[in-house]
Every structure is written in C-alpha cells, then in structure tokens.
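User: I'm writing a tutorial on reading structure tokens. Could you give me a worked example: one chain, its sequence, then its tokens, then a sentence or two explaining what the tokens reveal?
Assistant: Sure. Here is the example chain.
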Amino acid sequence: MTAHLPDARLSQIVERQRALSAEMAAPDLPPARFVALSKDYADLAPVAEAADALLRARAELAELETLAADARADAEMRALAEQELAELRARLPGMERALALKLLPKDAADSRSAILEIRAGTGGDEAALFAGDLARMYQRYADLHGWRVEQISASPAELGGFREVIFAIEGEGVFARLKFESGVHRVQRVPVTEAGGRIHTSAATVAVLPEAEEVDIAIDEKDLRIDVFRSSGPGGQSVNTTDSAVRITHLPTGLVVSQQDEKSQHKNRAKAMKVLRARLFEMEREKLARARAADRRSMVGSGDRSERIRTYNFPQGRVTDHRINLTLHRLPEILEGTALDELVAALVAEDEAARLAAIDQ
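And here are its predicted structure tokens:
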C-alpha cells in the first residue's frame, strides 16, 4: 500500500514548477543560472505533471461522489456518475504509486556511464570461458541500447575467455541499468575440457562501478606511486619493446591498477586513472551505503560482490536470479543480450517496491 500523498504536498510540487518557469522567463537572467534552472525544471517536469494529474483526478472524484449521492439528480445522471466513479477509483491507486515512484530519492549515479569489471572465479579454464560469455553478453546488451563500449584492459586465458576484462560503457543511464549485475555469476554446464560429460559448476564475478569525473574524486599526485614496465602477452612473451605499461598504486588505500593494452604510456596511464577514479568513487559510495545498512538489506542491490546472485544452468536452459527468485527458461537469449532486459526490469521493479515499502512503514 503506497502512502497517501496529501493535496498540499502535490500543490507544492506544481507551484515549484510554475516558479521555475517564471524565473527562467525573467529578462537578463545569467546564462549559468538559466542552465541550472533548466536542469531543475527538466527533473521536476514529470513529477509535477503526475502531481497535477492526481490533483485533478481527486477533484473529479469529489464531484462524482457528490453527484452520485445527490438524490435530486436525474437517475440516469447518477448511474453515469457511479460508473465513472468506479473507473476513477480503480485508476487512482496506480496514479498514486506512479507519483510515489517519481518522488523516491534517486541514486545520484544512475545517469552516469559505468566501468564494468569481469573476473574469472572458481573453475579454472571453464571460469575464464564463462567470463568471456558474460563479456559478450554485456557488449551485445550495450549495442542494443546504443551505448559505446571501450575495452580498458584484458587478460585473455589460453583456452579462450578472460581471466579479467574491464570495459568502459558510455551512455545515458548505463549505471542505472547495470548496477544490479554486481556479484557472483555461477554457471552449470559440461565444460569443453571435460571428456566424461560431467556437469561442472564455475563462477565469475562482476563489478559495475559508476564512472567518476575528476571533480568527484580529488587524487593528490603525492598519493600515487607510478611504475612503468614492458608490456607482455599471454605466457609472458613481450608485445612491446618500450616501457609503455603502467601500474598505479594509490598509497592511502592500497588500490592497484595496471594497464598495458595501449602502446602509448600516456594512454595506458589515462585508462588506469579512469579505473582508479571509479574504484575510489565506489569506495566513497560504499561508506555512505554502510551508514544506511539497515535500509539496504531490504533491497536487491546490496552491492556485496561476494554474493551469489545468478545461476546459468545450460542443461535445463534456464537462468535464475536468486535475489528475487526469478527463473527464466531463456538462457540463449539472455546470453545474447536480447532478453537480459527482462531480468534487469524485474530487479529494478523489486528495488522500487522495497523502497516504497520502506516509506510506508
């Protein structure tokens, strides 16, 4: 049950939109102020429209209730009012819930691009192959949404797949769609290396971090130790004759980021700093999250990367998300990225429901 939003609160939202519109129309408004007001107006517009629609629906409800109860009114008019009253009463809870969702506090990082890190876990070569499957799934999913994918770094495994691969995925709202993918992904299938046909269980970990700007995280050069070395490929063979690879250690936290995919030391450093900034930004977000730990425990996005969140069962062709107990028998389409949105939408809906329930308590 969604909490009833009082008319006074709805009127405040509508009036705030009108005030913003009036201020934006003022002559000689500084450009910087106009840009700030425009952003506020764009953020508020869908909320104000929903609030205004709900106010009008409530006013109509009162009129219909009066008409339906008026014994002096024409019988046909009363019957029509009662019919419209029943339809409006059926619509109102949905309107209340839609507005409540719009009023929920937003994750400030939802609109950002993201850093996606995939690492092979338990299972040896099969885990690396599965990490490769997940990498392709997210790349295809990104393509379907028109996002830009850049490989930051990769450690390919000898039999295929990756020991580790990191992508930057750029686009509006990338983090909002992918943030619930963080955790342990488990696969159950017969490995290509298994001659006896036995089903093995392997795992890969996924971490989705909101991309951070320089203004989000101030990194003091004195806090960095930067080492350069010669890039090497699988098996240790040299792939570069210059010291272009970069390893950056953030001394206060002990975080280490290595980058060697580019031939240019400058480009490797820039990519490594991008990943380091995202990891430091996520550390700050996790500190805030721990302060709200009681609330987060009721939500699907706990952020615990050691948590087993999903199982991909090949013999049965099913994928199960353990956080919301949802099983889809669409494994091939999910791994192709085409059906991943079905899982993502369910996770987003569950998170919204949990946050609405927290408000109602």
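What the tokens reveal: Residues 234-239, 294-299 have pLDDT under 50 and may be disordered. The longest strand covers residues 200-210.
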